[in-house]
Each structure stands twice: as C-alpha cells, then as structure tokens.
Specification:
Elements lengths: L24 E4 L6 E5 L5 E4 L14 H23 L8 E10 L6 E10 L5 H14 L1 H8 L10
Antiparallel strand pairs: 1-2, 2-3, 4-5
Helix pairs in contact: 1-2
Length: 157
C-alpha cells in the first residue's frame, strides 16, 4: 500500500519510516556467490557468478556489481532530481561506482568499500559541489554507506 502523497519530490516530516516502494529478491542454488537471483515480479532474473579474481569463472554478474549498479543508479537519481529543482539539465550526468571486496583488518572477515565519481559536463564545479553534498544526504545508498541500515536476519519457520 503506497501513499500517493509521498515521493522523492515531496518533503516528509513524519516520525516513522514510511516505505515508498518495497521489493523482494530471492537467491537460490549454488554457493559462494553462485546462484540465481529473481525478484518477486520477475523483472530481475539472473545467474550470479563469482569474479575470476576470487576463483570464479566470471560468466555473469556478481553481488558487488549489483551493489555498484544500485548505488550509482540511486545517487544518479538523487542528483538528477536536485539538478531539475535547480533548473539544470541532468542529461549529461554520469555516476561511476567502484566497489571493492576485501579483507576487513579489524576482524579478518570481509568488507566492501565504495567510491563514486560524478561527471557533469557543462556545469561549473562551484554549482555542482553543493548539489553533490545535497545528493549525498538525499540518496539512501549514500546514507547506508555512512550509517548502515536497520536490518534483520532470521530463519524462516
């Protein structure tokens, strides 16, 4: 049930999390980044593969690529929204995400690192820089990389 008055274009000052969109993706089969990912609506259906650098055969996308795509797309959307609000053309904006998978020095486990690079031809640096800061505050992926997100992990009954 979506509230039509809520959208990224409208401010929200409620005291509780208000979902605008919810998705469900299940990953089955394989292991070690191998398997099938499928969204409930069928819009996403793909084979996941481990990258060659980690011992895989690399014939398909991997979770790090999917995260990079999601992060870049989300930030691009936030920046494009702000550009339109400031009467700037978002068409030439490119957001490139680099996601690195590696060892966490604090516990020996694994960790992700992410870097975004924005290219915005025709817009002065002095104009773009404050909009990048605003997009960083607006984009939930950017917020997640800074603060984490509420998450639960449970075993199905």
């Amino acid at each position: 049930m979506n509230d039509p008055t809520l959208s990224p274009e409208h401010d929200y000052s409620g005291s509780a999390f208000k979902p605008l969109y919810t998705t469900h993706v299940a990953v089955t089969g394989g292991g070690s980044a191998h398997g099938r990912a499928r969204s409930a609506d069928g819009a996403l259906a793909l084979e996941l593969r481990m990258p060659e650098e980690l011992g895989g055969d690399n014939p398909g996308p991997n979770p790090e690529q999917l995260f990079a795509a999601g992060y870049a797309a989300c930030f691009h959307g936030a920046l494009s929204l702000l550009a339109r609000r400031h009467l700037l053309d978002p068409g030439p904006i490119t957001v490139e995400a680099t996601v690195a998978f590696g060892r966490d020095p604090t516990d020996g486990g694994y960790q992700l690192r992410a870097d975004l690079v924005v290219t915005w031809p025709g817009v002065e640096r002095g104009t773009a820089t404050p909009l990048l800061a605003q997009a960083t505050a607006l984009c939930p992926y950017a917020k997640m990389t800074r603060q984490g997100i509420p998450a639960t992990i449970s075993l199905a009954p």
